[in-house]
């Protein structure tokens, strides 16, 4: 098992390139299942554990994949089954993305109930409701979602989501592009990852209108074809790197990043006293001498992202005053707080609100996390902590951050990856 060993107290400087988005790459890979032939080429696909896991799932289905320098060539001509097994699906919730395209293309699908990060319930009821609305019979049997189209094709329908869901919107899109007739999706997610999926599907020959709005209209087509497409940057990785600059009192630049997708985070960084300079393809952050406390409420895009909540709490441990962080997306996503307190932070939790008292002097020690963003939060804390911090179980981190120790080291941090053995 690997860990990161961080020598804290070093300022960062320089420029670092943003990787491709994991949360966009996974539905793009799933959507290739809808292609009727030829090889789909996807550029800017990050080298991550989740990407490798999803690749194994697609290859189990019979998809042929080759890769070179963050580019995947994917052929779905020889898919042999529509069964997604527990052994692969349990490793990540995004595996649910194969449900819609398998059902749309083959008329049936058997998908294990998904796994993923351990922070509170994240039900799949909206995914199942969507498939039923489109004309499939759906049941849960022995831990598997069993779905069967009634008739030859799925049928267009009106889908009204009671809450905005990125995953359910993605599955609804992929299921409906080959459905007979017109599908409308109301209260659709508007995240950049969904916009990118829509553009990719249209590039393959789909007919999706209203892209970027909460109301999508999809007119089903007979087939989708192979195409070439470039993924967007990872806005959460970019925001995490910028926060690394802020927490260490540094000035850094993140390149190949679109600041229009990070307006909420950049605005909050400015409220802390940071200076943010942007152009169309880069973001530069210059830290103040003293960080100001800044409250945040995590909400769906375009508001402050829940995937930055943990990192923001780490930042606020170094800010002047008392800050309040509320997560309205995942109420139980606070497993990182006890570990931050072990480093010397003073953070209290009540319901879905964290109260952070700062600034506090952090001191390095061994810490461990249970999910992806909590791992990133502990790395940020380690950058500013006095002495050495060891972040254990970084397989969580490897799910969503491409070679983060190399990126931080290129900016001047002292971070190295080491192997270790846990005592049981």
Main sheet, how many strands, which sense, barrel? 4 strands, mixed
Query: Cα distance, first to last residue?
Result: 13 Å
Name the beta content range.
25-35%
What integer is the average pLDDT? 95
The helix/strand class is alpha/beta
Overall strand count:
24
Morphology call: elongated
Number of helices: 14
Percent helix among the residues? Answer: 25-40%
Model regions low in confidence, pLDDT < 50 over at least 5 residues: 116-121
Radius of gyration: 22 Å
Which sequence of strands runs across the widest sheet? 22-23-1-24
Please describe the topology of this protein.
Blueprint: E1 2-7, E2 13-17, H1 22-31, E3 39-43, H2 49-61, E4 64-68, E5 71-75, E6 83-84, H3 86-89, H4 99-106, E7 108-112, H5 125-133, E8 136-141, E9 144-149, E10 158-160, H6 166-176, E11 182-186, H7 192-203, E12 207-209, E13 215-219, E14 228-230, H8 235-247, E15 251-255, H9 263-271, E16 275-279, E17 282-286, E18 296-298, H10 309-316, E19 321-327, H11 337-342, E20 346-350, E21 353-358, E22 366-368, H12 372-384, E23 388-392, H13 395-398, H14 404-410, E24 414-419
Parallel strand pairs: 2-15, 3-14, 6-7, 10-11, 18-19, 22-23
Antiparallel strand pairs: 1-23, 1-24, 3-5, 4-5, 7-9, 8-9, 11-13, 12-13, 15-17, 16-17, 19-21, 20-21
Helix pairs in contact: 1-2, 1-7, 4-6, 5-6, 6-7, 8-10, 8-12, 10-12
């Amino acid at each position: 098992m690997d860990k990161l060993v961080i020598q804290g107290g070093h300022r960062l400087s320089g420029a670092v390139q943003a990787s491709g988005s994991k949360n966009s790459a996974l539905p793009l890979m799933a959507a290739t299942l809808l292609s009727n032939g030829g090889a789909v080429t996807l550029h800017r696909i990050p080298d991550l554990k989740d990407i490798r896991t999803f690749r194994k799932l697609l290859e189990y289905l019979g998809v042929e994949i080759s890769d070179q320098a963050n580019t995947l060539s994917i052929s779905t001509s020889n898919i042999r089954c529509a069964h997604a097994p527990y052994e692969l699906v349990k490793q990540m919730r995004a595996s649910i993305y194969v449900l819609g395209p398998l059902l749309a293309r083959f008329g049936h699908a058997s998908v294990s109930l998904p796994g993923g990060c351990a922070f509170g319930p994240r039900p799949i009821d909206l995914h199942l409701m969507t498939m039923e609305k489109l004309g499939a019979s759906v049941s849960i049997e022995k831990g598997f979602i069993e779905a069967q189209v009634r008739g030859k094709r799925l049928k267009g329908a009106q889908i009204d989501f009671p809450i905005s869901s990125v995953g359910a919107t993605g599955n609804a899109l992929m299921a409906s592009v080959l459905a007979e007739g017109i599908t409308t999706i109301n209260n659709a997610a508007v995240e950049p990852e969904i916009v990118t999926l829509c553009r990719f599907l249209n590039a393959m020959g789909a007919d999706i209108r209203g892209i970027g709005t909460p109301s999508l209209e999809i007119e089903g087509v007979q087939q989708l074809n192979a195409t070439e497409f470039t993924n967007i940057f990872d806005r959460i990785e970019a925001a995490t790197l910028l926060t690394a600059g802020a927490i260490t009192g540094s000035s850094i630049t993140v390149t190949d990043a679109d600041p229009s997708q990070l307006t909420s985070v950049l605005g909050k960084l400015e409220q802390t006293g940071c200076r943010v300079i942007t152009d169309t393809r880069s973001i530069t952050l210059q830290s103040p001498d003293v960080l100001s406390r800044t409250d945040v409420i995590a909400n769906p895009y375009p508001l402050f992202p829940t995937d930055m909540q943990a990192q923001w709490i780490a930042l606020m441990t170094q800010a002047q005053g008392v800050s309040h962080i509320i997560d309205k997306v995942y109420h139980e996503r606070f497993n990182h707080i006890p570990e931050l307190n072990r480093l010397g932070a003073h953070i209290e939790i009540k319901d879905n609100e964290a109260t952070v008292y700062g600034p506090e002097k952090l001191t390095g020690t061994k810490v461990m996390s249970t999910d992806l963003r909590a791992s990133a939060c502990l790395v940020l804390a380690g950058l500013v902590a006095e002495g050495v911090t060891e972040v254990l179980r970084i397989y969580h981190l490897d799910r969503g951050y491409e070679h983060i120790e190399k990126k931080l080291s290129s900016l001047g941090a002292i971070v190295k990856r080491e192997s270790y053995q846990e005592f049981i």
